[in-house]
Design brief:
Two copies of one chain form a homodimer. The first copy, chain A, contains one helix and twelve strands; from the N terminus they run βαβββββββββββ. The first copy, chain A, is mainly beta. Chain A has a five-stranded antiparallel beta sheet with strand order 1-2-9-4-7. The first copy, chain A, has a four-stranded antiparallel beta sheet with strand order 3-10-11-12, with no helix packed on it. In chain A, strands 6-5-8 form a three-stranded antiparallel beta sheet, with no helix packed on it. The longest helix of chain A is centred in the N-terminal third of the chain and has 5 residues. Chains A and B meet through helix 1, strand 4, strand 6, strand 7 and strand 9 of A and helix 1, strand 4, strand 6, strand 7 and strand 9 of B. Chains A, B: This is Cupin. Chains A, B: Keywords: Metal-binding.
């Protein structure tokens, strides 16, 4: 497999988010490249965001470094500090444990495409704008109750 | 640091290759992004290859997964099976332990640019075309003698 052929890798818009938080990512189409390519040291996801879609709910991880690079189109990176337009070749890094929630929003009228790198997190994730937390392998409310 | 500003990250064309193998990578300019960005789960290098430069001597790692994505320009990916032209958006994965040496050559007349992902290898690396091996933290000949 010299050059990765994306067309043979399954694309999914699935999410584990409970309603009503799932709707924001219904236009997020993910290909998980690492299993297909035989990589296990880190994960690589190829993501297409349809117009209006978010990459995730805005979040940060206690124990997962994340890195993204834009491949095409335009997305807005939203963090605590504000909004940054991201275009092909633009990159951003999200070190674990930094409590600055982030996500990408496609506010354009065309698709955008990026790669996301990370390792499967063992610890919790925190959601900045909504009553949601990933804790102990489940999505829960901030008071710890299950959805 | 919402969008990574490459211009503030130091660029180096250093190499540990012994002569005469160092010359091939003298036009390879690397920025190590992970330390600057606070990432430790995996490494990310931004690499510019000047015309004529190679990304490395052709090699494979016993214990390091590698992944590359082209950002601009054109390079030729050389593996045991042959040559593949890589352009912006093209990706390739090199699973650890697969004895298929790989590198990128810039045979064009302009710069090319890519990102390379991996984790610091603890084990050996094997060089496909030359009398070189990375073993026990040193560059040695195939017979084990030091340079």
């Amino acid at each position: 497999m010299p050059r990765i052929d994306l067309t043979i890798i399954q694309q999914s818009n699935g999410t584990g988010y409970p309603a009503p938080y799932a709707a924001a990512v219904s236009g997020r189409w993910v290909r998980r490249l690492a299993p297909t390519c035989g990589l296990s040291d880190f994960g690589v996801s190829h993501v297409v965001l349809k117009p209006g879609a978010a990459s995730s709910q805005r979040h940060w991880h206690e124990d997962e470094d994340e890195f993204i690079v834009m491949l095409s189109g335009e997305a807005v990176l939203v963090e605590d500090d504000g909004r940054t337009v991201m275009r092909a070749g633009d990159m951003a890094a999200f070190p674990k444990g930094e409590p600055n929630g982030h996500h990408l929003l496609n506010e354009s009228d065309g698709d955008c495409e990026f790669l996301a790198f990370g390792r499967p997190p063992l610890g919790d994730a925190h959601y900045s704008d909504i009553d949601l937390r990933w804790a102990g392998g489940n999505y829960v409310r901030r008071d710890g109750s299950r959805y």
